[in-house]
Write a structure and sequence with these properties.
Length: 563
């Protein structure tokens, strides 16, 4: 009895210690999250929690993926999380990925967050940040594509940067949508491939996508040998490893194939059911939830457009104000330089005038001194004549002295005359220097009193202390943004849609120009089989719409399937 009670107590204790929650790690394209989940949670409980955390409403495109022995599998919504064949080691890891792809991304992807999950890399061009070499660490192109053309990495970077700069200012959601529109026209867009064998044992590939089921040659994943659109399939089923596709037209033979593993058939059937449901859903009227989301998306788009226009106007006004400020600073700097030059010219004129005046005074004094010496020489000559000795010798000597005195007097007179002329010239130079000084002062006065005409609303700049101040007067600018009625909003949305279509068309033309431009540099000998097949499809117009791939086999008639 006591043993039984002790046994029951031990069992109860173990039951209480058993954990009631487990940890799950969710990996998205740009983040990781961890959640504590209850042991009884089903796949839908965990999936709804992740979608609420991401703020996602278009949940039907996504799923939680995990791996079983190198085979991809998706979490089932109606099955407990821990009942799946997943690792029991915590945290249990799932990848949040796109499980189904839209036929037309622009029409079906309503929310911006949904678009962003399909495309997760973009930013606007900034010349101050995106300098030479900024793409060196980015793997924007596969090595196979780089080796296919006679272009160096520098040439690729130059062209990509030029295109990047050419689309500066484009909103992120618009850029991402343009990218998705290009991607959705590629042959392998949204296709899940599986290795299969037909009844004869021939190895083939089964492709499952948003449009239907496609059978490929293993060497050619671009062009299917035959396609089964969803609206022409009556039933899909599997038994063990054998998979059966029954066309709607009973005249067409049933197509059967075998896969490598049973779980692969389960995955194929799961993808078929999901893609078929979305295929039929697209061809019906939108549900109330989708209509609400589209209406909210239009309102949000209109609001963002008005906000972008307001920011663009503010940016333009700021740039104009900055240009006005720069022009004002340039003109003030120019006036300061002119004033400095005028002051220097005035100082030079004053110094020159002082030097000329001093030199003129010295020359005048020298002329007076020479005149005085000439007068003294004349007096000496007269005195010598009066006291001359009457003898011939004395007379001859006296005549010689008189002659020398006359020559000396003549020279002194000439020197005196030259000094007088030089003094007159210096006086004239002094007068000219003072006239130049007067003109320099007048020029400085004109610069100081010159009126300055400034642009409207420049940004005030600090004035140097030695420059005259200027009063900048302008009318203030104000903006009155008023709500508009729904009719005007609808017209603006329609106008924006037309402009957006024109932008898309212009972008497509630019892409075609770029493709034509680099096509001349392609190395034909490096093309792979897939490149050649893609070029053939492009020549036939196969890449413009994936619907062509489906319609071609249909146009050949309802013949029995033979692969």
């Amino acid at each position: 009895m006591a043993g039984a009670i002790a046994s029951r107590m031990s069992f109860s204790s173990l039951k209480r210690k058993q954990p009631k929650t487990f940890t799950v790690r969710i990996v998205t394209m740009d983040a990781e999250m961890e959640f504590n989940c209850e042991m009884k949670w089903k796949g839908k409980d965990l999936f709804d929690l992740v979608c609420r955390t991401l703020g996602l409403r278009e949940t039907w495109f996504f799923g939680l993926q995990y791996t079983i022995k190198d085979t991809v599998a998706w979490l089932k919504m109606d099955k407990k999380v821990l009942d799946h064949d997943v690792s029991k080691e915590e945290p249990v890891t799932f990848h949040f990925l796109a499980k189904f792809y839209p036929e037309n991304a622009e029409e079906e992807l309503v929310q911006e967050s949904t678009q962003h999950l399909f495309f997760l890399q973009y930013g606007d061009y900034d010349p101050s940040l995106h300098k030479l070499g900024f793409l060196a660490q980015e793997e924007l192109l596969p090595k196979r594509v780089i080796n296919l053309y006679q272009m160096t990495p520098e040439m690729w970077e130059e062209r990509i940067t030029a295109w990047y700069a050419g689309h500066r200012g484009r909103a992120r959601d618009e850029a991402e949508m343009e990218y998705l529109k290009i991607a959705q026209d590629l042959e392998m867009y949204g296709v899940n491939y599986f290795a299969i064998r037909n009844k004869k044992g021939t190895e083939l590939l089964l492709g499952v996508d948003a449009l239907g089921l496609h059978i490929y040659d293993p060497e050619n994943r671009l062009t299917p040998k035959i396609s089964f659109p969803w609206n022409e399939i009556r039933n899909i089923s599997y038994s063990d490893k054998e998979f059966t596709i029954k066309p709607l037209d009973k005249k067409i033979d049933v197509f059967k194939f075998n896969s490598s593993k049973l779980r692969v058939n389960k995955l194929i059937l799961q993808l078929c059911i999901g893609n078929h449901d979305l295929f039929m859903r697209r061809r019906k009227a939108d549900s109330l939830e989708v209509q609400q989301m589209k209406a909210q998306a239009r309102e949000e788009k209109a609001r963002k457009q008005m906000e972008r226009q307001r920011l663009a106007r503010e940016k333009q006004m700021r740039e104009e104000a900055e240009r006005s400020r720069d022009e004002l600073e340039r003109r003030l700097l120019q006036m300061k330089e002119e004033a400095t030059m005028a002051n220097e010219a005035l100082m030079r004129s004053e110094e020159t005038a002082d030097l000329l005046a001093e030199k003129a005074q010295i020359t005048e004094e020298e002329a007076k001194l020479l005149a005085q010496k000439a007068a003294e020489a004349e007096q000496e000559m007269q005195r010598i004549k009066a006291t001359a000795i009457r003898t011939e010798e004395e007379k001859r000597l006296m005549e010689q002295k008189v002659l020398e005195a006359e020559v000396l007097a003549l020279k002194m007179a000439e020197e005196s005359e030259r000094r007088a002329k030089e003094a007159d010239q210096l006086k004239q130079d002094l007068q000219e220097a003072r006239e130049a000084e007067r003109r320099a002062k007048q020029k400085l006065l004109e610069i100081a009193t010159k009126p300055t005409y400034l642009p409207v609303n420049p940004i005030p700049a600090p004035m140097p202390p030695d420059i005259p101040s200027f009063n900048l007067i302008g009318d203030s600018l104000s903006f009155d943004f008023k709500d508009t009625d729904m009719k005007r909003l609808s017209m603006e949305i329609e106008k924006e849609k037309v402009e957006y279509m024109e932008k898309s068309k212009h972008l497509q033309e630019q892409l075609n120009e770029l493709k034509t431009e680099i096509e001349a540099l392609k190395l034909k000998e490096r093309e792979t089989a897939l490149d050649i097949l893609h070029n053939e499809n492009s020549d036939r117009g196969g890449t413009s719409s994936k619907h062509n791939t489906i319609k071609k086999p249909q146009a050949q008639g309802r013949r029995p399937i033979c692969i």
